[in-house]
Design a protein that fits this description.
Two copies of one chain form a homodimer. By secondary structure, chain A is α/β, with parallel strands linked by helices. Chain A has 13 helices and twelve strands. The first copy, chain A, is elongated, with a radius of gyration of 26 Å. Chain B binds a DNA duplex through helix 2 and helix 4.
Chain lengths: 334, 334
DNA sequence: TTGTATGCGTTATCAC
DNA sequence: GTGATAACGCATACAA
């Protein structure tokens, strides 16, 4: 367990009988080094098990070749088998892989966590920052932008401080509600998402607008995108509006919770009550009955955010806003 | 959008009319600085928006105050609404929060990703490394250990290179199978996990042993812990052993897939076929019928791994192995 | 093509 | 209590 003094450029240079500069050139793939010397250096590197010290390199190059993806939620929420964050992570991950950059995932749920993330990103530990969903008016994106650190959000930041990528919430919701209306549903309720998040706000607005246009009254209960909250909201709705015959839930997870409540209440789906979710996570095809839902291209959000960020970081032209399409996926629950 | 030259210690020092050393002392909370000077320095820091350059600090302190959690899976698998990884992340996150260390999550699914992670960790970009599940015989833990970088695995590494934390797979499985036997089930099948992962191997072993002890033959199909693979494995089992009356699935997700296949095949659960899963993820209470399963304290695994690592990193005594208990949670599927 | 010298922004070891 | 000054490990402009 000897914390063996790790080899430095200097050590490799001595071993190979050359200068530090030459070793550095070889390590960084410069072609202006004689073949045989390259060979000798490479052998020395292998023998000593040399690995460049990233901090030292960063200090001089001003680059870290890694970018941060920040989840401003408690770890609990982020990964509570909601597939939205994971989907974004996938997309980001794929795109960064292609650019040979390291993904650094950071959770900023607590106040302390948020501080730590701020120190970390502002401390130039990453070349750019991606925000996966913002709660309320987080000042961090703006702060980063002012510090000259490229940043991109998913969903419009309330202060318009940085470019963002989002999906067409309104279009998706209105198609879902229109579908229920077309099917002759008369009492269409909704289980809305948290009202301090863009996704929660926009989906509720879409529901209200479409329903109002058709001359129907809104029946609203609010959840927080989790399954448990969906189950509770459904109980509330059944209580207040026993005659409802359809529900649009702002997330598949809440729809799943609602399904359970409806089963417990003896309501058949879709015969008595039609249910439509939002997201189209993998689980949606496995609920009983399989869930009709609004699909959003989650992974694509991650990819687009990353492309945008990389363009910003390399000084290429970039767009301020990217909006991706949504689509109604019809299964059996409605 | 001016990439404003960010202020350094030097700039703050000039502004406050003191030396760099003094500014450094104040920034790092040294008490040996006169109150009024501290005040002046703090003001200068605020005015300039100074944030320490982490690379520079790391270069001299040899610490990064961040630790890596490595997921050696494709992003796809890691977050495919399997709740195991998310649970570990939660536990790790909580424990690191308490230690005021930054969590750096890294995906090492592809070969390129694995390389990048190797460079990153070996490059001393983190103070320690946590491995969430290993596939086959990954040499990285051993390499890190040799380089003097603290590392901990979840599940025993095949080469015993580093300390690890795991749960009592065998005990949990044998309790589940014994429960089925006690209920009078005669033809008990299993949907095993991937056989290049400790969890997959041990759970299958537990099934075989317990069944053999009772004089029953093993009926095995292999999946990869995903829902889809569980559904497929169940079809295979029904095909080969139409008379089976119970199934133990090595993960809740596979159990969920099996449930779907059984429904499609017209088998009632638990009347015709009893089903038991493993994990007890949140979803288990929401399946139809709710899933009987072996609970493993997932979050606790993450916490224990982290505690172990932090002890290693600070030179405190630590144990080579930590085994956590499992428990049979009885619901309605068996 | 290769080596020398310098600087990146901190912290830490000294004197004062 | 405070200020010079020397590392830390690397990349690079410049000289040879």
């Amino acid at each position: 367990m000897t914390t063996a003094q790790r080899p430095t450029l200097e050590a490799v240079a001595r071993r190979a009988g050359v200068s530090r500069a030459t070793v550095s050139r070889v390590v960084n793939g410069s072609t202006t080094v004689a073949e045989e010397i390259q060979e000798a250096v490479r052998r020395a590197v292998a023998e000593l098990g040399y690995v460049p010290n990233l901090a030292a390199r960063t200090l001089v190059t001003q680059r870290t070749d890694s970018i941060a993806l920040i989840m401003p939620e408690a770890a609990t929420r982020v990964f509570s088998d909601d597939q939205v964050f994971p989907g974004i992570i996938q997309g980001v991950s794929q795109e960064l892989e292609a650019a040979d950059k390291q993904l650094v995932l950071m959770l900023a749920g607590s106040a302390a966590g948020h501080d730590r993330v701020e120190r970390y990103t502002l401390g130039r530990h990453v070349d750019g920052v991606l925000f996966a969903s913002l709660h309320g008016a987080d000042p961090l994106p703006g702060t980063l932008a002012r510090a000259g650190i490229p940043a991109v959000c998913s969903g419009r930041p309330l202060d318009d401080s940085v470019p963002y990528v989002d999906v067409d919430h309104l279009g998706g919701v209105s198609r879902a509600v229109a579908y229920l209306l077309d099917a002759g549903r008369q009492r269409i309720a909704t289980i809305a998402g948290p009202q301090d998040m863009v996704a929660g706000i926009e989906r509720l607005a879409g529901y209200r607008d479409t329903l109002a246009a058709a001359g129907h009254p809104p029946l609203v209960a609010v959840g927080d995108f989790t399954r448990e909250s969906g189950a509770a909201a459904m109980r509330q709705l059944l209580d207040r509006h026993p005659d409802l015959d359809a529900v649009f839930a702002a997330s598949d997870l809440m729809a799943h919770g609602a399904l359970r409540t409806l089963r417990e209440a003896g309501r058949r789906v879709p015969d008595d009550v039609a249910v439509i979710g939002f997201d189209d996570i993998e689980m949606a095809a496995y609920t009983d009955p399989p869930l009709t839902t609004v699909r959003q291209p989650i992974k694509e959000i991650g990819r687009e955010m990353t492309r945008l960020l990389l363009r910003m970081a390399t000084g290429q032209p970039f767009e301020q806003t990217v909006i991706l399409p949504t689509e109604l996926v019809i299964r059996e629950s409605a």
